[in-house]
């Protein structure tokens, strides 16, 4: 829930992917994105490539959520299902003619977010309002993906809005009206990282050491904060330049930039900005042309996944620090 890309429709009605026109912000790698005009289509391109992108899927319904397995074959997306249901779909992008498969078979009515881990596990939210006990955080394990109707396990009850997997696939960051939390798949324990209202879109850095999120304040511009998962302290706060609302955030694959999306005007739906974590100007990127859409995800991560035992130790530190603050 935290994405950006840029494409252009040329005079010959071919889609052309352009390099950033800025001189400093460097965003590289392969991306999968929803077409800005045809919302039921997914396309793929490489930022450094000179050839145009290619379509990998034409779905029957509009796509409104997307998560790509880093350094893997799969992606998951959300689309309308039968009646008022939401479909959670799986796609193997490496197939010659990939076809999307519905994992949830119209069981959920309001899936707000979905994310696939580097290991291939799928996490999703459900905000079904009636009955309220069906709200929560759910998991489809990788081993279940081979089944026509995979088992969907509930991890947590209650409200869950947006979520993100840690790079080592052992933790899920999520948020609701009570704060930002980490759920540990190994221990099945939850730690609250933040207890303020109005903090959204928790997003792991590629090395798993930081968590970025958006802070919304009444009568003030939105801000972005970066939280150290070692100390649980805010290490950086960023205020967007000349903007009051942030639609989403993401990390660059190398972890050197935060990229945030703001509303556009007229036919330009969005603007995308890159700000270096080391400090510097906010640079407008992916914005040379009008047909811009925010829904995209990188296919690879620049960082290798940290060993699981390192993040297990980190989890113990988080738990101790959290308990000492209560």
Number of strands: 26
CATH topology: Methylamine Dehydrogenase, Chain H
The CATH superfamily turns out to be YVTN repeat-like/Quinoprotein amine dehydrogenase
Number of H- or I-type helical stretches: 1
* Topology order in helix (H) and strand (E) letters: EEEEEEEEEEEEEEEEEEEEEEEEEEH
Number of domains: 1
Distance between the termini: 30 Å
- Shape summary: globular
Which structural class is indicated by helix and strand composition? mainly beta
CATH class: Mainly Beta
How much strand?
35-45%
Low-confidence stretches: 1-24, 288-292, 307-313
Strand order of the largest sheet: 5-4-3-26
Oligomer: single chain
Topology:
Layout: E1 8-9, E2 15-16, E3 30-34, E4 41-46, E5 54-58, E6 63-68, E7 74-80, E8 86-92, E9 101-102, E10 114-116, E11 122-126, E12 136-140, E13 153-157, E14 163-165, E15 171-176, E16 179-184, E17 190-194, E18 199-204, E19 210-215, E20 223-228, E21 234-238, E22 248-251, E23 257-263, E24 270-276, E25 283-285, E26 296-298, H1 308-325
Antiparallel strand pairs: 1-2, 3-4, 3-26, 4-5, 6-7, 7-8, 8-9, 10-11, 11-12, 12-13, 14-15, 15-16, 16-17, 18-19, 19-20, 20-21, 22-23, 23-24, 24-25
């Amino acid at each position: 829930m935290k994405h950006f890309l840029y494409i252009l429709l040329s005079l010959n009605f071919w889609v052309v992917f352009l390099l950033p026109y800025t001189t400093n912000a460097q965003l590289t790698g392969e991306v999968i994105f929803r077409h800005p005009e045809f919302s039921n289509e997914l396309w793929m391109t490489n930022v450094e490539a000179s050839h145009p992108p290619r379509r990998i899927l034409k779905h029957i319904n509009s796509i409104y959520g997307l998560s790509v397995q880093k350094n893997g074959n799969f992606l998951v997306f959300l689309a309308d299902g039968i009646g008022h249901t939401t479909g959670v779909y799986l796609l193997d992008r490496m197939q010659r003619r990939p076809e999307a498969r519905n994992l949830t078979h119209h069981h959920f009515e309001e899936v707000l977010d979905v994310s696939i881990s580097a290991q291939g596990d799928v996490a999703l939210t459900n905000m079904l309002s009636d009955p309220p006990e069906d709200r929560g955080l759910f998991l489809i394990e990788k081993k279940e993906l081979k089944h026509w109707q995979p088992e969907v396990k509930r991890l947590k009850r209650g409200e869950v809005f947006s979520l993100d997997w840690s790079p080592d696939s052992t933790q899920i960051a999520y948020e609701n009206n009570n704060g930002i939390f980490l759920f540990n798949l190994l221990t099945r324990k939850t730690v609250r990282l933040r207890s303020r209202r109005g903090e959204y879109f928790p997003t792991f850095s590629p090395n798993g050491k930081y968590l970025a999120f958006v802070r919304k304040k009444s009568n003030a511009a939105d801000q972005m904060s970066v939280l150290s998962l070692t100390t649980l302290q805010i290490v950086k706060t960023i205020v967007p330049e000349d903007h009051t609302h942030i639609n989403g955030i993401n990390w660059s694959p190398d972890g050197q930039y935060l990229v945030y999306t703001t509303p556009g005007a007229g036919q330009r739906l969005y603007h995308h900005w890159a700000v270096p974590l080391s400090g510097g100007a906010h640079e407008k990127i992916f914005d040379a042309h009008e047909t811009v859409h925010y829904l995209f995800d990188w296919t690879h991560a620049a960082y290798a996944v940290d060993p699981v035992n390192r993040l297990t130790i980190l989890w113990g530190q988080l738990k101790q620090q959290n308990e000492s603050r209560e």
